[in-house]
Amino acid sequence: MDFRSSETLVGPRSEDILPASAATAVKVVIVGGFGVGKTTLVGAVSEIRPLTTEETMTQASAGVDDLAGVERKTATTVAMDFGRISINDELVLYLFGTPGQQRFWFLWNGLFEGALGAVVLVDTRRLEVSFDVIGRLEERGVPFVVAVNSFPESPGFPIAELRAALDLPDEVPIVECDARRRDSGRDVLMALMRYLYSLTLTPERS
Ligand SMILES: Nc1nc2c(ncn2[C@@H]2O[C@H](COP(=O)(O)OP(=O)(O)OP(=O)(O)O)[C@@H](O)[C@H]2O)c(=O)[nH]1
Ligand SMILES: [Mg+2]
């Protein structure tokens, strides 16, 4: 039997192999309302080929899923996205993107299990979809940063107004990003890491 062809098909790519120096793994969840760019962000920053569970949106979701602002969207996450990014030789982040549609939110409980922190992705055209998301994180005590995904049509919001609109405490970082860009997504994750680190220095908040 010739195994060469199957080895080529199933063998891991060199970039998929976790370096032996990676001593600490951290789980981070990417949350947000429907269509804010969660799958895009995980795909942009992941150094491994991301696992996605997207299904084609059909006519049955018309009137249920609000496509305002993301009219060209044709697929939606039904379970989770998964990706990985090495922050340095020793620290690796496992990224779990959540489904945005409320009918799949029951899956969040499992995805939050063991998560050190979260990124709340926000679209300023549809801030209201973020309220419940933030409420759920606060209920569960998961620390988070807010990342504003800049769609071209999104209205600009001064940070102070955004903080007030989302009713965020002063210490929660708000950063802007373009979920399609790897460097931008990486900056968001670094902001989360810095925030988590700051919480360890002020234990009464963590
Ligand atoms: N212009 C622009 N388009 C974006 C950006 N991020 C995502 N998109 C597009 O917006 C749409 C929604 O992105 P997704 O990544 O599927 O959003 P999601 O949050 O995973 O959506 P659900 O899983 O359905 O909740 C897709 O068509 C993306 O190509 C962005 O930063 N700028
Ligand atoms: Mg998605």
TrEMBL record:
The keyword Nucleotide-binding applies. This is Signal recognition particle receptor subunit beta. Belongs to the GPN-loop GTPase family. Keywords: GTP-binding, Hydrolase, Nucleotide-binding, Receptor. One of its GO terms (molecular function) is hydrolase activity. InterPro entries: Gliding_Motility_GTPase, Gpn, P-loop_NTPase. The keyword Chloroplast does not apply. PANTHER family: ATP/GTP-BINDING PROTEIN-RELATED, GLIDING MOTILITY PROTEIN MGLA. Pfam families: ATP_bind_1. It comes from Kitasatospora atroaurantiaca. It comes from the Bacteria.
